[in-house]
């Protein structure tokens, strides 16, 4: 029974990672007194306030594909603690077909400074019969990254922790905004980009690996895009595992259009259904 629960928990985590990175999918001038926050930032050239991305989620079970839900990610420029900030939210929900295997009703929220340095993160997740909440608060004292971590576990118990790192740390939402602003110019197949991600429990040793270029057609919308292909890896128990392979538009928007998720008991995919409020012309679209 324990192994079954662990498998279902991993399914929920990887589905959210994909949509956030998908599970891959979000600047104006602002001054900060923290040098570390500036070091953890990156210039935004990928998205505007008001962008919305919608994905259809599919799951493979015994060679049969099911459409099992939808995910929506929205990004807007607002304020956080009186200062300008990006607010991004991700809402994922499975339908009754997915509920036969695993109930997933998740809401993720993130605030980042205009240069995309993370400020706050919250995840409220219903996975199977479990419901829990993760929260992270970021500060940057003395050129470090300090995390205040809060979790309400499935039993309603509260847990608080503090951690401090020399390197920049991100969460599943802020890393998505950052990754969309990476440039693949000059990258070679096999090149790796470290992407340390934390939740309220632990820090993940994870990275992106560039896999090259590919043209991909979305069957549901009949749209075709020239894409950059990346894989998201995590090292656990001494082994490297490819959790997600995703395809992003090879243009300034860097929108994920397809994500393939490798699960313990099946395969899941996410396909871009619709998009609006994008910042730049979709030059990757093949007419």
Structural description of this entry:
The chain has helices at about 1-20, 35-40, 95-100, 175-180, and strands at about 50-60, 65-80, 85-95, 105-110, 120-125, 130-140, 145-150, 160-165, 190-195, 195-200, 205, 205-215, 225-235, 240-250, 255-265, 265-275, 285. A hairpin with a 2-residue loop joins strand 15 (about 255-265) and strand 16. With about 290 residues, the chain is mainly β. The N and C termini lie far apart (about 50 Å). The strands form two sheets. It has a 15-stranded antiparallel sheet that branches. The protein has a two-stranded antiparallel ribbon with strand order 10-11. The chain has four helices and 17 strands.
Annotate the secondary structure layout.
Blueprint (H helix, E strand, L loop, with lengths): L1 H21 L12 H5 L11 E11 L2 E17 L2 E12 L1 H4 L4 E9 L5 E10 L2 E10 L5 E8 L5 E8 L8 H6 L12 E3 L2 E2 L4 E2 L1 E12 L6 E13 L2 E11 L6 E8 L2 E11 L8 E2 L1
Antiparallel strand pairs: 1-2, 1-16, 2-3, 3-4, 4-5, 5-6, 6-7, 7-8, 9-12, 10-11, 12-13, 13-14, 13-17, 14-15, 15-16
């Amino acid at each position: 029974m324990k192994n079954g629960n662990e498998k279902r928990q991993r399914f929920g985590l990887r589905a959210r990672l994909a949509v956030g990175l998908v599970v891959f999918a979000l600047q104006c001038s602002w001054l900060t007194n923290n040098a570390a926050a500036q070091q953890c930032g990156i210039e935004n050239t990928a998205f505007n306030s008001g962008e919305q991305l919608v994905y259809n989620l599919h799951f493979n079970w015994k060679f049969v594909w099911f459409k099992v839900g939808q995910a929506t990610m929205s990004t807007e420029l607002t304020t956080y603690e009186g200062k300008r900030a990006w607010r991004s939210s991700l809402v994922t929900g499975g339908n009754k077909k997915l509920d036969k295997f695993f109930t997933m009703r998740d809401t993720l929220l993130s605030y980042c400074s205009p240069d995309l340095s993370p400020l706050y993160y919250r995840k409220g997740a219903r996975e199977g019969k479990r419901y829990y909440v993760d929260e992270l608060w970021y500060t940057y004292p003395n050129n470090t990254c300090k995390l205040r971590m809060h979790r309400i576990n499935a039993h309603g118990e509260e847990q608080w922790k503090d951690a401090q790192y020399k390197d920049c740390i991100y969460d599943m939402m802020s890393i998505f905004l950052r990754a969309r602003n990476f440039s693949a110019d000059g990258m070679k197949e096999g090149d790796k980009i470290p992407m340390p991600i934390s939740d309220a429990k632990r820090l993940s040793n994870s990275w992106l690996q560039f896999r090259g270029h590919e043209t991909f057609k979305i069957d549901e919308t009949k749209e075709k895009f020239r894409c950059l292909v990346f894989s998201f890896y995590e090292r656990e128990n001494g082994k490297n595992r490819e959790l997600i392979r995703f395809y992003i538009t090879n243009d300034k928007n860097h929108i994920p259009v397809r994500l393939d998720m490798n699960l313990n008991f099946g395969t899941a995919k996410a396909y871009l259904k619709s998009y609006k409020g994008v910042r730049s012309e979709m030059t990757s679209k093949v007419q």
